User: Fold these one by one.
Assistant:
Number 1:
Amino acid sequence: MVLKVKDLAVSRGGLTVLEGLNFTLSPGQALVLRGPNGSGKTTLLRTLAGLQPPAAGDIVGDPETIAYAAHADGLKPTLSVRENLAFWAQVFGTSDLSPAIDAFNLGTLLDRAAGALSAGQKRRLGLARLKVTGRQVWMLDEPTVSLDTSSVEQFAHTIRDHLKNQGSALLATHIDLGFEATVLDVSPYKAKLRDLPVLEEGLL
Amino acid sequence: MVLKVKDLAVSRGGLTVLEGLNFTLSPGQALVLRGPNGSGKTTLLRTLAGLQPPAAGDIVGDPETIAYAAHADGLKPTLSVRENLAFWAQVFGTSDLSPAIDAFNLGTLLDRAAGALSAGQKRRLGLARLKVTGRQVWMLDEPTVSLDTSSVEQFAHTIRDHLKNQGSALLATHIDLGFEATVLDVSPYKAKLRDLPVLEEGLL
Amino acid sequence: MMPDLGKYATSVLSAYGASIAILVVLIWASLARSARVRKSLEAFEAKRKGNG
Amino acid sequence: MIALLLRDLKIAVRAGGGFGLGLAFFLIVVVLVPFSVGPQSSLLASIAPGILWLGALLACLLSLDRIFALDFEDGSLDLLATSPLPLEGIVSVKAAAHWLTSALPLVIAAPFLALMLNLPAAGYFWIVLSLLLGTPALSVIGTFGAALTVGLKRGGLLLSILVLPLYVPTLIFGAELARRGVNGMDTQTPLLMLAGITFATIALLPFASAAVIRINLR
Amino acid sequence: MIALLLRDLKIAVRAGGGFGLGLAFFLIVVVLVPFSVGPQSSLLASIAPGILWLGALLACLLSLDRIFALDFEDGSLDLLATSPLPLEGIVSVKAAAHWLTSALPLVIAAPFLALMLNLPAAGYFWIVLSLLLGTPALSVIGTFGAALTVGLKRGGLLLSILVLPLYVPTLIFGAELARRGVNGMDTQTPLLMLAGITFATIALLPFASAAVIRINLR
Amino acid sequence: MSERRSLWEYANPRKFMGLSGTILPWITIAGGVLLVVGLIWGFFFTPDDYRQGSTVKIIYLHVPSALMAINAWFMMLVASLIWLIRRHHVSALAARAAAPVGVAMTIIALVTGAIWGQPMWGTWWVWDPRLTSFLILFLFYLGYVALWAAVENDDTAADLTSVTCIVGSVFAVLSRYAVNFWNQGLHQGASLSLDPEENVADIFYYPLLVTIAAFVLIFVALVLLRTRTEIRARQLRAYMARERMQ
Ligand code: HEM
Ligand SMILES: Nc1ncnc2c1ncn2[C@@H]1O[C@H](COP(=O)(O)OP(=O)(O)OP(=O)(O)O)[C@@H](O)[C@H]1O
Ligand SMILES: Nc1ncnc2c1ncn2[C@@H]1O[C@H](COP(=O)(O)OP(=O)(O)OP(=O)(O)O)[C@@H](O)[C@H]1O
Ligand SMILES: [Mg+2]
Ligand SMILES: [Mg+2]
């Protein structure tokens, strides 16, 4: 077990969005978060990645094992694809770029400035970053946005590989990714609006 | 016929991306652009919308009939959903917001600041803008990114409606949208790399 | 040989010195860049020919 | 067009930005001057009109990048360019909104700051008049600079460098007008020059700005 | 950590930005002063050290928003915060990169600009010394301000307002040191104060900056 | 239309490379020789001026460089207009190539002027109209160069800098004719005017003409050389861009 969530509540903009979440993530497991727009998937992922504190409950797990990929890819438009990847490899203390490059078919784009990529090419580079982190738990927010079908296939393949090597993944997505995964629908955990976030009611 | 493209070539970053495009768009017709990442769909849409000049060929059509929706939604985070919509309505000289609001189920979000919406909610607002332009030809770049299944359904419904009223639509997308449309795969039109854009070869 | 520049010697000499230095730097920079660009273009075209 | 102006004003007010911040910057620059040149009051009074003009100019300058950059980043500018509004009109409205939110508050605040710099009260009129006449040129010129650099990420510094030389004539005649007015000298020449610059830029630069925006959107 | 520093320097050079632009701004501010206060050379010489300090400070200030804003917008900051690097280290590296790309060129250029303001040659040493000692504090304090405003779109002006008061002590002692040095007066007190401020901010502020970044990323 | 060869042919990169390659050495030699002759003549073989003393020798550097600093901007203006109207790439690249040369000329004029000013006016710098507009022109040069460097896409950069060049021409005109508008300021008026009464003494005049010719030729040579470099660099970028698309 690499991540265990107990009675977790997460909040955004001062309001609790989801509450009463309980789940675990084991090595080799992929967990897909589903739920309509605005249900709180992004908020949950940010909380688990340690970017914001939980509103209640516990997260058991080592933040040092998590690699988070947000909607924005964190690419520097003036640096080349290779330089972008190499930078993240250095930050995470790894050095071999080639698996990442191969996994997302970036070979021909290596010397291109990241700013001159198309939407899908950027996304592929953003996903390739995950592979150079060398981390075990991947947290992905709508990873396949803008990807064409063959790239989605590549992505699914990469995830399957990662799971096979005892990695695990937590994904938020609206579309089918084409690999076996536990599905967690977050809609039932929608927070009731019973209490005010900060002050007690009738305080006046 | 609202748009006719003859021998069009489009370029990005000084290089021709697509060439030899010929197609027409008639009232009531939806044309879906397909092609792998980086094949030039975005570039083609921007050219047709009049944001960049064609590299060669002709575009016959009135730019005043086109409503373009890019990847970015042009929302002002500090204005409310209603204010955002009302602004575009005024710019395009229309006044009735309610069809747009109903079409994308924005009723409950009206007084929310656009910056406090989730990814999918923002997208819905961005699409609602199209309805308030009152324009006939919609050009959409990956419109369903981040949308959940029920919103995609709403979107397809809106498009069908628009087509029924003699509107037409040109969409770039990687996923199935669930309505009948002519499909144009741009990959065969990939520009040959025969000439350099500006200078002659072997110039030295 | 050297003309007598009187009390303004430093002014005149530094004006000549500075101007000539700037010209030399400009010419040197232009030539260096010209050579560099030319070399990389030649290398590039040679490589392309080699590849077919 | 009106809708655009109103929207821009609303956003400026909503962001808490426009009014307050430019003003505060102006205030701080004027406050820092005594710290940096030392507090002898005769020296201060003699440089006061110049410092007020310089402070107003820098405060204007700092708010220039807001004119287009936000609209560019979130895609609004693409959408506006494909809207029925003429681009020349859009840039003029943008310049007007900038003047209303950034420059006008400075003009109003100037007399209060003049007090801090020991300027004689008779000079207040001239300070306000020269700023009122000169700042529209600053907004219009600044809009041109903002249009030039709109495609560049963080073009802020480049913007300053392109715009400041263009600001020089306005600054010279504006400060000259204020200084002459304060010292009771003849003000006609700088007054005419300043007005001339302002009207010329308002009449001509919007076309350049619109052209440049079109290029940058490609 | 080194990787981050190198990346930031590379980006600054690549953008053509870092070095050249801050410098050009400095140059322009110093050039504008005579336009605004009038060109009497004795007046200029007497305010020269203050103007040079003020110009350097404003040039630093304008480049502050680059420190974090770009990384925040494109998501890098989220990713860096979840990376193995300690956040305190990240902010320190950011401050160092800012100093190298923005402040150091100003220090080097200062003597040339002093020439334009008719400063006696004996004063150059003191101008450079005071800037060399004071600008690291400006970078570190600026990094704190940039961290505070990182969440805000176009927080540039707010940033200026938060940072400028914090800059006041550095400015006072820096300009005082330069002025005294130029006039051949005793420089010990401002020298010690300036050095003290710089070392104190370098030692303490990175912790505050890191904390503030953490809050802003929530 | 007609059989006559049009001048526009040289806007074709290949034609330009051919022609410029042939004439460049000659212009360079001529410019170098004239410069050496003019400067030696001026420095060693002219007397001191009765008022200015030996500082009058600075004229052989100051006037030609100031002249070329302004003319370079006008050349850039013409090149920019040609680019905007006829979209000949060589023209845009020539403007780009000329700017750094113009910057150097401006710096020489500023430095020599300042050094000359110290003994003549008792100060390095005065804020008179000609000097002021010349300084603004210098700042414009910097902005122009920075803009070229900052914009990724070459055509966009050419368009934007062309507009900047047109706007900046106001200051090029002012720094040449400001003295005529405001009859104030310390700086010299037109000493090279055709009116013989106003001319500087012949003995200074002839070597000055030689150095002016030398500066013109050196400017042309440098611009040709740099334009050739820019064309090659553009070619290289185009190759690399194409390579990357494959
Ligand atoms: C920093 C100080 C100076 C600057 C920036 C400067 C700049 C200029 C400029 C822009 C021109 C006009 C070139 C043209 O119209 O093509 C010029 C011409 C000239 N300058 Fe200066 N100058 C400076 C100092 C001086 C000094 C101190 C002297 C002599 C006492 C001087 C003597 C001349 C002469 C004789 C001409 C030729 C006049 C003409 O043909 O119009 N300059 N200078
Ligand atoms: N900055 C914010 N301030 C206040 N509320 C916000 C903010 N961002 C999001 N929200 C609200 O918090 C809720 C959860 O948003 P979240 O982004 O987590 O949803 P999501 O499940 O990721 O949706 P989507 O599928 O559309 O991305 C939504 O109702 C949203 O409107
Ligand atoms: N700013 C730019 N400069 C240079 N080349 C660019 C730039 N933007 C995109 N390109 C290149 O132009 C080509 C077409 O890009 P475009 O964005 O039109 O593709 P697309 O079909 O929309 O792809 P996607 O499905 O990934 O969005 C791509 O090869 C891309 O790398
Ligand atoms: Mg989300
Ligand atoms: Mg696309």
Number 2:
Amino acid sequence: MAKFLDLATAVAEMVHDGDVLALEGFTHLIPFAAGHEIIRQKRRDLTLVRMTPDLIYDQMIGMGCASKLVFSWGGNPGVGSTHRIRDAVENQWPRPLALEEHSHAAMANAYEAGAANLPFAMLRGYIGVDLPKVNPQIRKITCPYTGEELATVPAIRPDVGVIHALRADREGNVLLEGITGCQKEVVLASKRTIVTVEEIVDDLRAPSPNSVILPSWTIGAVVAVPGGAHPSYAHGYYTRDNSYYIAWDKISRERETFLAWMEENVMNKGPDAFAVHAGRRAAS
Amino acid sequence: MAKFLDLATAVAEMVHDGDVLALEGFTHLIPFAAGHEIIRQKRRDLTLVRMTPDLIYDQMIGMGCASKLVFSWGGNPGVGSTHRIRDAVENQWPRPLALEEHSHAAMANAYEAGAANLPFAMLRGYIGVDLPKVNPQIRKITCPYTGEELATVPAIRPDVGVIHALRADREGNVLLEGITGCQKEVVLASKRTIVTVEEIVDDLRAPSPNSVILPSWTIGAVVAVPGGAHPSYAHGYYTRDNSYYIAWDKISRERETFLAWMEENVMNKGPDAFAVHAGRRAAS
Amino acid sequence: MSLSYSPNEMMTVAAARALRNEDVCFVGIGAPSAACNLARMTHAPQITLIYESGTIATKPNVLPLSIGDGELCDTALTTVPVPEMFRYWLQGGRMTVGFLGGAQIDRFANLNTTVVGDYHKPKVRLPGGGGAPEIATNCHEIFIIMAMGKRAFVDKLPFITSMGHGPTGRERRALGVKSKGPTRLITDLCLFEPDPETQEMTVVSIHPGVTREQIIENCGWTPSFAAHVVETRAPDAKELEVLRDIQARTKAAHGG
Amino acid sequence: MSLSYSPNEMMTVAAARALRNEDVCFVGIGAPSAACNLARMTHAPQITLIYESGTIATKPNVLPLSIGDGELCDTALTTVPVPEMFRYWLQGGRMTVGFLGGAQIDRFANLNTTVVGDYHKPKVRLPGGGGAPEIATNCHEIFIIMAMGKRAFVDKLPFITSMGHGPTGRERRALGVKSKGPTRLITDLCLFEPDPETQEMTVVSIHPGVTREQIIENCGWTPSFAAHVVETRAPDAKELEVLRDIQARTKAAHGG
């Protein structure tokens, strides 16, 4: 059964230096509050796994948490580069960052294989492209019926999976809704898991018998962090803060402005700072 | 886009002698009305695919529609044998029936692979059991990373997939809810599809943004057949007619009672006969 | 005061007792389903019951006739597609216990639900494996519930539908399967557990009023008895009341 | 009466026109998304737009900034998990058109969005492939939208992120890929289509007021022109009005 913890305790107990760590959330429900707590606790040498290492990994990598990044698309969506990731890759600042690069289809399949307890995933992919030349983890398998060749990638089984969800009930069962990305897969594929939620409620208010629910016994820790996905969003709670993403381009472009911003907004703050965003419902 | 057809026309257009045909529905939403129409139109030499060939396939096989059955569990759930399937296997009556037998896990994965346009599925399965000795389609593959051996089965890609769903909108988009089995996979894996529904409505009334919906352009024909899953059930419409399943044991035990029942209840009736069940809501 | 009960009731009660509050149990239909829900309604209210139809943490008020009765979905925490159930939940290694029945069993708890006689020219064609082949290896341990009798407890199976400890008791480990396999076999006469050395299912507890001779007469092989065989605790009033209530509700609901 | 419009508007309008009412289109973010939604709001109201975030048949009122803005989910027919999107819907062969942009393109419509310079010692590290490598082979055909310029239209790509017709125009077929690959390349100056023999992207239509010299100057290889090059029809009032409206709504919504 999931334990109900505060965020600092959950990160202290579950996330260790050197871990393979996946913070997931496909644009929606990105666990920013959890990422900030990991930065504050100064974790080092993490292998960070994420399909779309956008701002949260830009911040974690810029603050020196990671030695490796496993990813399939790294940028500030609709805005431009993730400058801190580029600085790490191009100039080794603040430290070198090894890359293991995939396509979205491969990573989604690799999470899926991890959740299904398979050692690898296969896909009709990587045909005629250069990525297999620079990523030796991309291999091939032959269909035992048709003789066709398919691409393979190893299953992703993180040490720790971290997601943000809408709400949990008092038993620790968790509901997601909207764009659910590969969050279910990450939780089921990971050895340890932290799920931050907007609220803890008596009744999950699942709208459908087929609602996306992770049972309590699949989760390590449940942490209430209202607003904890900001500047990403939480379906039915608050909308995406697109102006933050746009502003990040300038903040992150130079090391000095980045460090100053992190000091003020992350190092000197706590999870409670996210609560202000929980009530913000943009008209859409 | 799906065509709106009547059931006789849909079966006449889509189901041909010799086809590989999958009628799916895992206890819930079994397309009985469509199966009866196929019997009435006297299709022959069908390869019938279904995880749980229960009463609907007992009826189709007993009426001579099939020459082969691909399955993983054949019985009258909670009641006993499917006597007509046994008579075909044990005594070749009314005609011989070839079997291709799998486990549930293998068939579910094979449908999933079909939907995903993969030529085969792999699973951690069939370990230490005799089925691979009698089914040469069960093979092995070696993981290119760990060297582990995994079982494989060919993807299922039926000529025709038939399911029953709750409702369709005027564009032919279809909603399922409750126990959804592998219906989505069957529709996406099949070359041609027939979806019978309880009703056609202006608004699908999908309760969640993640509701199980098949877009119109994935479906060949949509047919309104209220009650068309009886004696199976339709979530929110009517409950399972367990007494029918219990009564079937006696009806189907002897060829004569079976044939008499089929003549009266299938051959001399039409899809409209199912409508009486649409309104029956058992208190539960 | 002694209560009157049937051998089947004793079997179901004994099976229910094997389950723990913290178990996540993959439930077979029929006798396993009765035992699992009895456990949930008595000593293990928090047990998670999962049926292969995709219903997770279901709490049926009446026993389902099929593996996918509406009652299972209506009372579940959530319901997932069948491919997901087999991929993420069963193969994913999430189940602490798989609870199976069967048509035939051998001394190493291998099960046959496929065929009697030759596979290609069957004497009796049984339903087939369903979920059992993968339940048997992907759950952490397996409980089996079956009434004894010489046609069911056989010296040699005509077909292995799901593996217990293998034809000689050694194959399971030799094949590298990490899960425990059958750890309990609950019958209407007694309880078996695997011998720690040989993996042969061995009588460890005999139900009240049952003799060793009865067990031997109803077994197709010569059964082994543990060094210390105890007497199974008889069903208590609460267990019987809850079991009979649920069966009465079930009968009424199914209109049988 | 002649309307005034920008090269970017011409490009977006021309791209929108390439789409048909019956298309099921896998939409990339940015310029493809603008073109696809313009098509939906003008001549192709029934077009099915799918974003890799899992949103199927979405009808956003403002253009999403990201691939997974809430607007996409709120207006979708349904939203599926990302692994399902890539497995059942993209790999499943459901998409008639994949609409891509890119940082660099070569004459055979291969795309680079990965890196400039050596992969291991990059001069510029670009975002990477995302969905593009599999979009490029699993959709029935590919439309590409990119503004011309010598840094974007290059003679030789440093890295092939997604395959067009292959480095020499022959690899796609040689690899046994059945889908058509890039059939249209829409730029701010002209429209390219593959030569039926060589697969080289060839200018087939030039936007009003653009010269061949401008196209040549903005292309890193010497572009071929079809035997009969037509003039692209200028945006009409309706197209411009709808495009400008949606861009104004988008700007207001994103608070940029």
